[in-house]
Design goal:
It is built from 1 helix and 4 strands. It is mainly beta and about 55 residues long. The chain has one domain. Strands 1, 2, 3 and 4 form a 4-stranded antiparallel β-sheet that branches. Strand 2 and strand 3 form a beta hairpin.
Length: about 55
């Protein structure tokens, strides 16, 4: 999944999961930056952008 493709997410103690109770559903901690790249907010202080939908 998308977390396993990101070392900062895969190697963290949190990992990610889909918040299916939200509408729209989003991935915990994963943010899509303005340039389209993904970052993991819990381990990246510069991680800002839109939620990543799942």
């Amino acid at each position: 999944d998308v977390c396993n493709d990101m070392s900062q997410c895969r190697d963290s103690k949190w990992g990610s999961y889909c918040k299916t109770w939200q509408n729209p559903a989003v991935c915990f901690g994963i943010i899509k930056k303005d340039d389209g790249s993904l970052c993991f907010a819990p381990t990246d202080s510069d991680c800002e952008g839109e939620p990543y939908y799942c």
